[in-house]
Design a protein that fits this description.
By secondary structure, the chain is mostly helical. It has a domain of about 70 residues. Its main location: membrane. It holds the Pfam family TPR_8.
């Protein structure tokens, strides 16, 4: 039974029904429709914390999906799973792949910054000031890019940039 048939949540059921209707009326190829079904099932599994199942669905969607924009979101969601599992190097890899296909994905830029910021904190705790500064500077760079694309988002990052003196003069 596909995940879309197992949804118990009213909102999930509503989304699934609407997505199925849209899929039927849109002039898309069989592969594109199949890719979307896998993507949708991946999102559902991910929201329920079923990360292994979500990854299986995302990888299958990735093998079918040809549109670079859609592929960027699949790659981004794969990155989310790896980040939530503490696999930061893999997460960074998938966030960067998503940005190669869609440079206007501020959430990927933000998540890259969060990982570098975390690494900066760990370096600070390990008394490695050079690595700490390097990681914080990388985080600042990615947050500045995310804020440029979405100026009303990432308020905590904007405050961090201000309080650490890393804010670009154009963002003030």
């Amino acid at each position: 039974m596909s995940r879309s048939q197992k949804n118990d949540n009213f909102i999930d059921k509503t989304f699934t029904v609407l997505a199925d209707i849209v899929l039927k009326i849109l002039p898309t190829s069989k592969e594109e429709k199949e890719a979307f079904c896998y993507y949708r099932d991946g999102m559902s599994a991910q929201s329920e914390g079923e990360y292994a199942e979500a990854l299986e669905n995302y990888y299958e969607a990735l093998s079918l999906e040809e549109d670079p924009f859609d592929r960027s979101y699949i790659l981004y969601n794969i990155g989310l799973i790896y980040a939530s599992n503490g696999e930061h190097i893999k997460a960074l890899e998938y966030y960067h792949k998503s940005l190669e296909l869609n440079a206007k994905l501020p959430q990927a830029l933000n998540n890259i910054a969060v990982i570098y910021h975390y690494q900066g904190i760990k370096a600070s705790q390990s008394n490695k000031p050079d690595i700490c500064k390097y990681m914080f500077d990388k985080a600042a760079n990615y947050w500045q890019q995310a804020i440029y694309l979405a100026p009303n988002n990432y308020i905590e990052a904007q405050n961090w940039l201000k309080t650490t003196g890393r804010e670009k003069s154009g963002n003030k």
